[in-house]
Design goal:
With about 270 residues, the protein is mainly alpha-helical. About 45% of the residues lie in helices and about 10% in strands. Helix 5 packs across helix 8. Belongs to the cytochrome P450 family.
């Protein structure tokens, strides 16, 4: 593992030294470009895309791609939420090839085939962005978020919560609330599109990064990172069920500790161009 991370550190350092801000040629340059775009915009989130974070992301992606391509997908302790979300992306879009085709067609139309997707493309890829958000809603990989605790005695309605009481936010119940979502148990990117086809950025009941003052501090960075990886994957590759697995539901999941993980299945990966 030390040799693996050392090789990635060396690669990131070399990329940083030679990257001139032009069109990114690979994942590392995409992340460097994202950092530069945030810096140009004066975004404070730029500080969160550190070299350490880039190294971690590249390591996780290579680990995750190995999981996708091997016959059996195993849950490894080093996998983080981004990789789990990408595994869900593949499982759900394999199960819904019509959605996968629409995403690929939209990215082809906007990005073309001579460059990689970048953050500036996000506003012009509403269906792809909506699909990613729908994966995050449908998978709810952290259905109860992370446990928190009250720092003092709190009164909520008729209930008194003593100091130190564990508090869990039931994100799953919000993500599948029939009062907030039309057919919540159906995978529909349209859940995140309004009548004019624009993305619904903050619909009520969508909280994949938890809520309140303890919301995930890396939310904006994680969304940017997932968008880049998601759009790149379905721009360059086509994913399909393995022969003999046509009747298998690739959207089924299994509970792991406090999380949700898509069930392992063989996948056929084909380069689109």
């Amino acid at each position: 593992m030390d040799e693996f991370l050392g090789a990635i550190r060396k690669e990131v350092k070399e990329h940083r030294a030679r990257y001139d801000g032009g069109e990114p040629k690979d994942l590392i340059e995409m992340l460097l470009q994202a950092r530069q775009e945030m810096e140009d915009e004066g975004s404070d989130d730029m500080k969160m895309i550190t070299e350490t974070r880039i190294i971690q992301t590249v390591a996780n992606v290579f680990d995750g791609m190995e999981l996708i391509l091997l016959p059996m997908i195993q849950f490894l302790s080093g996998i983080d939420s981004a990789i789990l979300t990408l595994l869900w992306c593949i499982g759900l879009l394999v199960q819904h090839p019509n959605v996968q085709a629409k995403v690929a067609a939209e990215v082809d139309k906007v990005v073309g085939r001579d460059r990689l997707p970048c953050l500036n493309d996000r506003d012009n890829l509403p269906y792809s962005t909506a699909t990613l958000f729908e994966v995050m809603r449908y998978s709810s990989i952290a259905p109860l978020s992370l446990p928190h605790a009250t720092s003092k005695e709190v009164q909520i309605g008729s209930y008194t919560l003593p100091k130190g009481t564990w508090v869990l936010v039931n994100l799953y119940s919000m993500h599948f609330d029939e009062k907030l979502w039309d057919q919540p148990h159906k995978f529909k990117p349209e859940h995140f599109l309004n009548a004019t086809g624009e993305v619904r950025l903050l619909p009520e009941g969508f909280m994949p990064f938890s809520a309140g003052r303890r919301v995930c501090v890396g939310e904006s960075v994680a969304k940017a990172e997932l968008f880049l990886l998601f759009s790149w994957l379905f721009h360059r590759f086509k994913f399909a069920k393995a022969p003999g697995m046509e009747g298998t539901d690739y959207s089924e999941s299994v509970s792991v500790l406090l999380g949700s993980m898509v069930i392992e299945n063989d996948v056929v990966v084909e380069k689109r161009f």
